[in-house]
Write the C-alpha cells for this entry.
Amino acid sequence: MIDNLALGLSHGLMMLAAFLLLRRPDLDREPGPHDADADKTRRPDRTSRPDA
C-alpha cells in the first residue's frame, strides 16, 4: 500500500515547481535578433571555464 503522505508530498512539490516555473517572466518574452539582450544570452560564460 502506498503511503498517502509520501504521495501527497511528492505531488505537492511537483505542483509547486510547475507553478513557480510558469510564473517566470522570461517565459513570456522571446528576444529578437536585433535586441540588446539577445547577444547576452548567446555568449558562453567565460568565467566558468579555464583558458586553454
Summary: The chain has a mean pLDDT of 78. The two ends are 56 Å apart (CA to CA). The helical segments are 4-22, 36-42. Residues 31 and 40 are 11 Å apart (CA to CA).
